[in-house]
Amino acid sequence: SGLLTRLHISAATVGILSASKSFSQNIPSCLWKLGRLNHVAIAVPDLEKAQSLYKDVLGAQVSEAVALPEHGVYTVFVELGNTKLELLHPLGEKSPISSFLQKNKTGGMHHICIEVDDIKAAMTELKKKQIRILSEEPKIGAHGKPVIFLHPKDCHGVLVELEQA
Q1: Would residue 33 be called left, alpha or beta, if left means φ above 0 and alpha means ψ between -120 and 50 degrees?
Q2: Residues paired with residue 113 on neighbouring β-strands, in sequence order
Q3: Which of 76, 89, 113, 114 has its CA 20 to 30 A from that of 82?
Q4: GO CC: one term (predicted)?
């Protein structure tokens, strides 16, 4: 009975695996893959006060401010262990953060950033799926890696940044 039971279980397992294989064949394969949440970006009207909140009040490890003229922002990263917060403050008159802060005087969540393993493949596939990308080519982001932004109207109201892992 031991051998018969094992054969019966093995046959059932093969049936389940076969069924799951055919199920997975119905899922379209992507040429790229979403990775981990890299950061949540928060626009802040006063960068020094925001840095002080996370560093002095909450005890987080907080970076120095870095200017990113190509993006029109100052960035500060707050380490959280499993991810980061990115504090954004306007740099220059044409900063996209300036217009955000005009509508949201006290600041607020600006975007989320998710890592991808192949940003060019992601761009190609997302364009085919009618997802608007806010630039023709990736730009170098705050981590020195290529990034793109997806239109919030195509992402249920959320500005999504994809970063090459």
Answers
A1: beta
A2: 39, 161
A3: 89
A4: mitochondrion
Evaluate whether 160 touches 150 at the Cβ level (below 8 Å). yes
CATH code, residues 34-164? 3.10.180.10
Q: What amino acid is encoded at 117 in this protein?
A: D
Position 5 scores a pLDDT of 46
78: which strand partners? 62, 85
Q: What is the pLDDT of residues 27-56, one digit of tens each?
A: 556 788 999 999 999 999 999 999 999 999
Please count the residues of the chain.
165
State how far the Cα of 80 lies from the Cα of 60, in Å rounded to an integer.
7
Which residue's entry shows tokens 């119905």?
A: 26
Sorted by where each begins, the domain ranges of the chain are 34-164
User: Do 51 and 87 meet the contact criterion of CB atoms below 8 Å apart?
Assistant: yes
